[in-house]
Task: structure prediction
Amino acid sequence: MAPMKTLDQLLVNELKRELRDRGLKTSGNKETLQARLREDLVEDEADPDTYLFKVEPDIEELLSSMLGNTNSKIDAMDTKVDAKIDVMASGIKTELLAMNQRLHAVEERITTIDEQMNQRVDAVEKAIEEMKTQVHCKNTNAPETSMTSFVHESSGKMKPPVFDGSVSWSVYKKQFDAAVNKWNSEEEKATALVLSLRGKASELLQSLPNQQDFAALVQAMELRYGDEHLQEVYRVQLKTRQQRPMKHYRS
Result:
């Protein structure tokens, strides 16, 4: 049911609506509007002080009120949403801080592992270098023997093994011939044989006036270290042992 109001209770918009319904002007302030409506009531022989106006709800006012309520609700919802967003943002910041701390710890761990790996690699490389040095020293200080492997020189020729008199001359001669079989010059062969002698075998060179004579060198080596010479040495040693007086031991 629409409320009833007196002339003095009407609002400005209600006064204007009543005047508009009566076909009167709606301009002016509230007092002007009240006076204009009062005159119209008097002309209609109605008492302006007791006349009750049926006030219908104003659609615009109703919509404005509804809009105001809606805006209030929206503002309240915005406030709640902002509060929730703040809480969520605070939680996210806390999680991000924790994640950054864990990430920093992982990075420090990785750095430590890298340093340890580098130290181990350096230690291994140092150990390898020390082993190489030791092997090089052993190879440098190791005496050469007649069984030394053949090596190729830059000229493509093979270097014959060394001879120190500790092995059979006939065996060494075969190895030497295999190394120098493609050499055409007898002087080159003589030089190679001279450079291959070691120890007591090299002392034989002092008795040879011409060390470039390959045939003379071979003959001298045959006489000194050949099989016939060794047999003679063995016979002398055996004869010497037989001539030694036997010792008698008292029982």
Observations:
- The chain has a mean pLDDT of 81.
